[in-house]
C-alpha cells in the first residue's frame, strides 16, 4: 500500500483541492491480489487503490474508453516468429500502469482531483495505452498496421519487436544490446518489474530453448480440474485410443469409414 501511494506521489496522480461546486464524488477502495507464476507460486503481491468507476456516467464523466488489447492469436504468432528468428522473448510489467496515463475529463472528489488515470476509471485503459503508444512512437518504433498493440524498431540491421497487453509487455530482438537498451529506456520512463525470460503469459506456459519454443497449458488444465473437483479423476486418452475394443452393433447401418 505504501508503494502504491508513493507511486502516486512520483507520478503526480492527484492534487489536493477544495471540492468544486456541483461535483459528484467518486469513491475508491483498496484491492489486493497475488500474481502467480507458472508453478502457481506467488511471485508478487499487488495492492491497488481502485476508483469506483461504476459510478461514472457516459458523456458526463468520460467520453471514450476503448483501448486495443493483444489477442491470444497475436501472442502465438509472435512466439512462432521469435522462434523462427532465434529471438529470446523477455517480459516486463508496469508496476502502476494506469496512473501514468493522462485523463482529459475532470473527475473530482471531496479531497483529491485526479490529474492522471486511476485503476477502475472507465477511461483508464485508453489513457494508459495512449501514454505508452506516444512514448514508443517518439522512441522510433513503428506501430503495426493491423495489430495496434505490436510495435517494431529497426536500427542498424537489427530488429526489436514489442507486444503490449495492458500493463504486461513482451519484447525481444536480434541484438542483445538493442534489447538491453530498450529495457533501460523503459525503466527510466516508467516504474518497471523485469520478469526475465518469458515463461508464463495469459495462461500459456512457455519454454524457449535451442531446440525451439514449446507452449503448453498444464497449470490452466490443473486449475480447471480443481475448480470442478476433478483433480483426482482418471485421465483418458483423447482422441480415443486406437486399441480400445468395441462391441459390434449388429442392428446398425454400415457407414463410410472415410467420413470419420
TrEMBL record:
Domain Reverse transcriptase Ty1/copia-type residues, every copy: 11-241
Superkingdom: Eukaryota
Chain residue ranges for the region called Disordered: 235-260
InterPro entries assigned to the protein according to its UniProt record, in alphabetical order: DNA/RNA_pol_sf (IPR043502), RVT_2 (IPR013103)
Polar residues bias: start-end ranges: 235-245
Name by which UniProt lists this protein: Reverse transcriptase Ty1/copia-type domain-containing protein
